[in-house]
Amino acid sequence: MKKIGFFILVILTLISCEKNDPKAQLQHLNGYWEIEKVETPYGEDRGYKFNERVDYIEIEDSVGFRTKVLPRIDGTFVNSETQEKITVRIIDDSLRLNYSTPFAEWTETVLEANGERLKVKNDRGMIYSYKKFEKINITD
């Protein structure tokens, strides 16, 4: 019976470590992300059923950018002219995204990042949940 309990404990530890491994999360950040929901610390959550624009994140060697893009019906994107610079750091076993623009600086902590989902929490306690964006594909 002790062996089964020990085995279950080891499995749970491995699962919890894998989910919050900052290096593993980092490899999933690049790409197009569509916001699904914003949770506020005040309980004023907001869901998004349709998004005109999506976020594009590109990070290489712990630096990169995020920009808004407008998906077009032919599967291409129109880029916005603004970019937020990103510097990635691992602090206290969590992945931190440090953003900067000419007007502001802020940090988001990655809570979840995998091939399908991205969830981040900002300095004000707001949690942003994204899903991987699927391009519009219209065929003849």
Automatic annotation (TrEMBL):
Residues 29-119 form the Lipocalin-like domain. This is Lipocalin-like domain-containing protein.
